[in-house]
Amino acid sequence: MEVVLAEKYGFCAGVRVADKLVRIAAAKGQTGAILGQVVHNESVEREMADLGFPTVHRLEEAREHEGRIVFSAHGVAPSVREEAAALGLAAIDTTCKFVTDIHREIGRSLDDGCFIAVLGQEGHREVIGYTKDLDPSRYGVFYTLDEVAAFPWESHPRVKVVFQTTLNAEGFAEHVAEMRRRVPDLRVADTICYATKENQDALRALCADPSIDAIVVIGGQHSKNTKELVKIAKESKPTVFVGTAADLRPESFAGMRKVGVTAGASTPDYDVEAVLARLRAMG
Ligand code: SF4
Asked: Is 70 exposed, middle or buried (0-12, 13-18, 19+ CB in 10 A)?
């Protein structure tokens, strides 16, 4: 069985930086706690814990880990930074530059009198970071077209749209069109991350290859961008979604001659290499 890797896959620049900053701290002999997974990937989470940086879900828990807290690439609301400082915690901030840019964009647009429409998932950490400290009357989070259609846009003549970085742009064009019909002054910031787009485009190229029998997508169960890859792959090919090489079942590939492989933006290279090696061994 031939195995073809997508032209672009796996760790994005933001995640590489986050991963590196934690490793640098560990190499200096520091320990700490990571607020939520540093990236949405179970292998990386286990490895970080082994390096002395376990995942925690409350700032207070960092007190048991040298009083050091890591903010993930998803970013946090300003009030979370203030709370950490008030608790006397030292922070390692690995917020991705693109996420920081969106925080700034939202701040500028609010000053400009805009209502903020975040296209994304209400409970996603990146979205929580953008909205946690905002006045609820100044923003809305929308994911389905029905949510957009049901909203009283008439009361918001000036609106700024920002996107959760990991969304599939094509799935939200209709949302923007609906707002455009109803909002006189609609401003759209294309904040979807290039890394996500590149991984998606490279996967589409694999899917367009008629000689490929199936696609393997590698990534964490909670990774939004990995799930988007799964969704794209499923539209045209049988798709196998795995966290690590250990999840691969030979029977899933019975009779196949060629398999394409991609990985989410939070999937480490060693997981990709292990999957490639196991698939090739199956062949
Ligand atoms: S996917 Fe994009 S926005 Fe998210 S961490 Fe990576 S580079 Fe940053």
From this structure: buried
Quote the pLDDT of residue 171.
Answer: 84
Any ligand 1 atom below 6 A from CB of 14: yes
pLDDT band with cut points at 50, 70 and 90 for residue 38:
confident
Q: Which is the closest atom of ligand 1 to the Cα of 193?
A: 2
Which ranges of 183-258 would DSSP assign to H, the alpha helix? Answer: 194-207, 224-234
Whether 47 is catalytic is: no
Whole-model pTM: value is 0.82
Q: Which residues contact 3 (CB under 8 A, 6 or more apart)?
A: 258, 259, 261, 276, 279, 280, 283
Lowest average pLDDT, out of 39-48, 67-76, 141-150, goes to 39-48
Interval between CA 282 and ligand 1 midpoint (Å): 33
Q: Is the pLDDT of residue 233 over 90?
A: yes
Cβ 21 vs Cβ 92: under 8 Å: yes
Q: What angle do CA 84, 85, 91 make, to 5 degrees?
A: 70
> Is the CB of 165 within 6 Å of ligand 1?
yes
Residue in 42, 105, 126, 273 annotated catalytic:
126
> Is any ligand 1 atom within 6 A of the Cβ of residue 12?
yes
Measuring from atom 2 of ligand 1, which residue has the nearest CA? Answer: 193
Domains of the chain (ranges; CATH) run: 2-10+195-282 (3.40.1010.20), 13-95 (3.40.50.11270), 98-188 (3.40.1010.20)
User: Does residue 117 line the site of ligand 1, with CB under 6 A?
Assistant: no
Q: How confident is the model at residue 246 (pLDDT cuts 50, 70, 90)?
A: very high
